[in-house]
């Protein structure tokens, strides 16, 4: 499949899953939105679930790679947390529909939801590492790094989703400023 068709299917799937949710979305809907034959999608993905998990994996990988590419070893842990918050907020602003999918579809006990949470967990482990670094440098309070990682991810994710679903203006700078103040007030000694 040409890259352009892959991109069309990818974007169409994000649009349809975002609008209808996983359960109500159909491969017919995605094929129609991408303007490709349904068989073209099935050639590359065995099921709607496989396509969905591919989307999530690609999206979380984009988020993680984007953050990791900007983290520098010589940055102070506080600067790293600020960068993570800024990049996550920016990512959700840029990929609004993916944000909706990520947060709406991640809860539950279905296999896809459990797999989905594993993918998100890989990103949160990056945050945990920065928190541990800050604790070891005696910059951050001694907190459970896993709890802090999920809290920082969740704070930015839910605040972003609230704005995106409420159709309000997504002011990344204001959101970053508010969340940075709240997050670092709780972490920094």
TrEMBL record:
Residues 26-45 bind DNA. Pfam families: TetR_C_24 (PF17932), TetR_N (PF00440). InterPro entries: DNA-bd_HTH_TetR-type_CS, Homeodomain-like_sf, HTH-type_TetR-like_transc_reg, HTH_TetR, KstR2_TetR_C, Tet_transcr_reg_TetR-rel_C_sf. Residues 3-63 form the HTH tetR-type domain. Keywords: DNA-binding, Transcription, Transcription regulation. This is TetR/AcrR family transcriptional regulator. It comes from Tumebacillus amylolyticus. The lineage of its organism: Bacteria, Bacillati, Bacillota, Bacilli, Bacillales.
């Amino acid at each position: 499949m040409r890259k352009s068709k892959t991109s069309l299917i990818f974007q169409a799937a994000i649009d349809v899953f975002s609008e209808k949710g996983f359960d109500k979305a159909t491969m017919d809907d995605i094929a129609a939105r991408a303007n490709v034959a349904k068989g073209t999608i099935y050639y590359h993905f065995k099921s709607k679930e496989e396509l969905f998990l591919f989307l999530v994996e690609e999206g979380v990988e984009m988020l993680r790679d984007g953050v990791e590419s900007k983290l520098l070893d010589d940055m102070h842990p506080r600067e790293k947390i600020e960068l993570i918050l800024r990049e996550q907020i920016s990512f959700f602003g840029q990929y609004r529909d993916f944000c909706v999918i990520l947060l709406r579809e991640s809860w539950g006990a279905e296999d896809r939801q459990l797999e989905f949470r594993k993918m998100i967990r890989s990103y949160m482990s990056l945050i945990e590492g920065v928190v541990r670094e800050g604790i070891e440098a005696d910059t951050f309070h001694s907190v459970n790094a896993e709890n802090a990682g999920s809290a920082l991810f969740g704070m930015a994710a839910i605040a972003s989703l609230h704005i995106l679903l409420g159709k309000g203006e997504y002011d990344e700078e204001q959101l970053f400023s508010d969340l940075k103040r709240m997050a670092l007030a709780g972490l920094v000694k």
